[in-house]
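Sample entry was shown:

___
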Amino acid sequence: MRKKKRTCITAACLLLSLASVHAHAEDQMVQDTEETGQASSSASDLQEVFSADGLFELIGETQSKQGQALEDVLPKPATAAVPAAPPSSSLTVQTLDPHPGPAEAYASNAEEYQEADYRFYSDTLFYTCTRHETEDGFYYLTHVVIKDPSQIRGEDSYGDFAGIRETPGDAASRTGAAVLVNGSYFDYGTGYATGGELLIRDQQVVHGPWSDGYEICLRKDGTLFSPGYNTIESVLAQDVVFSWGTCEDLLIRDGEKCVLTDYDWNGNLYPRTAIGMVRPLEYYLITAGGPDHANGITIYEEQEIFASLGCFYARGLDGGGSSALVLDGEYVNENGDRISEDLVLRRPTADFLLFTE
């Protein structure tokens, strides 16, 4: 999936862009534009524009008819400027009591387990996976409980941060993952993971002068968090073992729903992958939509789902044709890049988030 530039654009520019989409979507796609450096608008101004004119409906209708990714239809806004202030050197991440483990999960979720489309239970791993229908799409909800924090980890494609992408199915087979989803956004040109500024593998920094807040970090104890604008030293001091880069708004932090500001992206129906943490060792995964950017869900819907499940933290990973869920070596969702009417190929990605037994 192409990297979505993280920024706001002026309400006037957005109105003109959407009017162009409405008039010309049947005949052409607007080509990607270079970064323009245009001024940003406040979130409240954009919210008023959308509320007044019902532009979410226009976006959804245009995309569903054309099967196009929204970022391929609208001109790209400018990349957000690096803050003038230096990054913070102080970072505090709340420590929660971990889940008791798979046996407790199995005992307390008997009905969920019996009704699940996919399910597994052992002394070290519990998971259920069920398909849910929405008014406009569908998603798979996977509930995972592990016994030890070492059972959740990140994995680079082919086990190496080298810019060579691997399909999720191949990665699951290679690693023996019980549950695996696609991870970071990535650059098509280089094949490297992208999204956040800071990328960490095995407690080592492989990219980035600081964290810009668009990272999903995994701590040694299984805690997931996003650091904000912070120094490398302050992030590493939290015992971060792996990080993924994202371009998605933070959904839930410290058990509270975050304000979603990227209205053009968040209100669009789209195939998505996201992770939520109730507490260390207990997680939920959302994998939504199918090929041709069809039948997905909005980020608002993702946020509501994770909040209803009691998640302390939640955020989206890469989506679109990259969105993939693999359970015990088999794909669950039917997503990827359509090559022909009858052929959809799985998209190779830069890295993965996985659970082992």
In short: Residues 1-80 have pLDDT under 50 and may be disordered. The chain has two domains: 11-73, 102-355.
